[in-house]
Structure formats: C-alpha cells, structure tokens
Amino acid sequence: xxEVQWPWQYxxxxxxxxxxxxxxxxxxxxxxxxxxxxxxxxxxxxIIDVREGEHLPLFNNTAISxxxxxxxxxxxxxxLLSTGNAGMVDKSSRSRWYVYWHTVDEWATIVYKWAxxxxxxxxxxxFYELTNSSGDLNGLDEGILVxxxxxxxxxxxxxxxxxxxxxxxxxxx
Amino acid sequence: MRRRAxxxxxxxxxxxxxxxKDKGTVIQENQFEQMTxxxxxxxxxxxxxxxxxxxEIKKNSQFRRQFQEMCSSIGVDPLxxxxxxxxxxxIGDFYYELAVQIVEVCMATTHKNxxxxxLDELRDRLIKARGxxxxxxxxxxxxxxxxxxxxxxxxxGFCVIPVGEGQYMVQSVPGELSMDHTxxxxxxxxxxxxxxxxxxxMEQLNWETTRATNVLNSMVTEGLCWIDKDxxxxxxxxxxxxxxxxxxxx
Lengths: 173, 250
Fold this sequence. Notes:
The structure holds two protein chains of two kinds.
Chain A: H1 22-43, E1 47-49, E2 60-61, E3 66-67, H2 70-82, E4 86-88, E5 96-99, H3 104-117, E6 124-126, H4 127-131, H5 142-154, E7 158-163, E8 166-171
Antiparallel strand pairs in A: 1-5, 2-3, 4-5, 6-8, 7-8
Chain B: H1 7-52, H2 54-59, H3 61-73, H4 85-89, H5 91-113, E1 116-118, H6 119-130, H7 134-137, H8 141-150, E2 159-162, E3 168-171, H9 179-191, E4 195-197, H10 198-205, H11 209-221, E5 226-228, E6 236-238, H12 244-248
Antiparallel strand pairs in B: 1-3, 2-3, 4-6, 5-6
GO molecular function (chain B): DNA binding
GO cellular component, one term (chain B): ESCRT II complex
Subunit structure (chain B): Component of the endosomal sorting complex required for transport II (ESCRT-II).
C-alpha cells in the first residue's frame, strides 16, 4: 500500500476552514473531494463517520495542527454526494456516510465482470465469496455490495437471494 | 552731460535685440539640425547593429538587457513600434512570445493563486514550459518585466506590482488593485510568511480597523487570499501565491 500524495492544500492552514468566497470555496471543495476519494481508495475506507472524523489523518493534519470540523466534513461529503461519490448510510442520521471511490454503477460493473471472469454466471455465490475474492472486490463493504447488486438486478443481470448461510446472489447472462 | 534717450535710441535698441534674437534662432536651429543628424546616424547605426546581432539579442540575456538599455536611453523602444523598421527586424517578437507565455502561465495557475503570481515562480514555470534548449532557458527577470509591462495595453487585466526588495508580482485578474491592496501584498511578501492577521496589519501600517478590514475582506472577495479560522488565534489571511508548497506544486 503506497502513501497518500498529499496535495499542497493539505499543508495550507486555511484549507481546513470552509471559505466564505464562493469561487474559492468551489476550488477548495474540489480539492477536498479528490483528496477524500484518493485517501479512501488507498486505505480501502468505505464508511466515514463524521463524529470520528478527526481520528483520520485525512481530516486532521497534526503537523500544522489544523482539522476539519464535523460540520465542515459534512459539507465536503455533501459535495461527494452531489457527484455520486457518497451516500448516507442511514437517512435518519447524517453522521455515517458511504464513500464511493467507485460510484455504485461502477461497482456494479466491477462485480458483474468478476462473475464473468470467474465463471460465476448462472451460479449462486455468497456475499462472503465475493468480498473475500482477490482483486477489487476484496474487503468491499456489504452495504455497498448490496447497492451494486440492486443495480445489477435492475439491469436483470443478478438476483439477490437469502440463503441459510447468509446472503447470496445469482448472476444471469 | 548725459544724453537723454530719444526715439532714435529706442529704435536702435529694438533693432539690436531683434538681431540678437535672429542670430540666436539661427544658432539654435543649427544645433538642432546637428543633433538631429547625430541622432539619425546613431539610430541608423543602432538599427544596423540590431540587424546584425539579431540572433545574439535573442539568445543572450545579458546582451539583450544592454541593448534594451541602449535603446531606451535614446528614446527608441523596439517593442512599442509595431510598424515600420523595428517590426520587420523581429526584435520585439522575442518579447511578444514571452508575453504570450506569461499569459499562459498566469492562466494555468489562476485556479491556485487567484490571479496573482510572484515573478520568481512565474519564471520557474515559464522556463519549465519553454523546453530544454539553452537559449530558451536564459530568461531573466528583466526580460519578464519588460514583456509583462507590454501586457498593460490589454487594459487593467494585467499589471506588474512591485512588492519591495526587488520583488514583483504579476496580477492577471481584471480589476485594479488599490494602493492599500498593494501595501498588504508588499507587507506579506517582505514578512517571509504567506499570511497576515488583522491586528498585525493594523499595527504595521498604522491603519484603523475599518480600513484594514475592508482591504482584507476585498482580497478575500477577489479570491486572492483564503481565511484561516483557528479558534485559538486571530483569523489569519493566507495568500496561496506566496505559500511555498503552492508555488512548488505542479
């Protein structure tokens, strides 16, 4: 696992204050968006809890003692939401968020491709098999997996099944 | 006995004065003619010189600067005249090309610095963009200043701001910076850091709260600086254009 390439903004103290000037804020949030996605992709983070945000180096640069407030983290995540790169885990509380460094549609495509590559089409396999396979799907959060599979269901390429040993899915050609 | 001045004497005096005046004009004209001739010869020589050393002027930065100085001392600006002899020579082309590259660098960095860039950073980026060839590399700060000043003809969208100690910044966003803005830039640039706080600005420039607040707020509005609200300290105003990591970032 490589190191994150921190952008210059990460050491720029005002990066951690949401900017009042609209244009500057747009640039700032754009930078945050790519940083969050890069960071989560590298560290395989699927869920961000806003209340725990400061425990992630992502939101807390101890070198310059600046951190993003929970409120600001929410602002950043809302930007990710608008581009399809985040979603609330639970609609009632706004503190837990999925981060989609692949959008759900992309995940669906990746899952289906896995099924094709591993000759799983027209076969039932468990979520466990999927998330413990080698490759992109390894460690994938089950919540996100279900969302991706639902996309495949819509495309009529899969059906989610309830099995004795947990959940599973059957892929169609 | 002293003779009293008569009408004749007055006439005589007047005549003499006129003669003096005439002579004076003749001498003046002579001198002027000579000077004009000399200047003409000098100009011709200079032009001949320029044609002969055209390539040298393009390649050698020191030579270029001296040539510029020579030209400006006799009131010839090889850049300003778009028509006639000088344009045929193509001396100005070097600077026009440079000016275009300056605009390109400014445009490419606006998203980071909000439209002001230090001349040193500008030079670094420009040289990187110009390619490896040695003659492309030898661009001096003087060359840049010369070229950047020419961009003024596009209105107030482009200007060079002296920020003290031989340091310059190039502004590439529309909207003229006021004296107060320039003063702030100067202060931050000479402080060696990339930020300033309201109290420190007021203290160092002896400004009242309203004046200092107005300037800082307008610079935030222009996108030239970012604010940093650290609850432990005063709000500080940061300039990406002077922030080392930003300057160095690709």
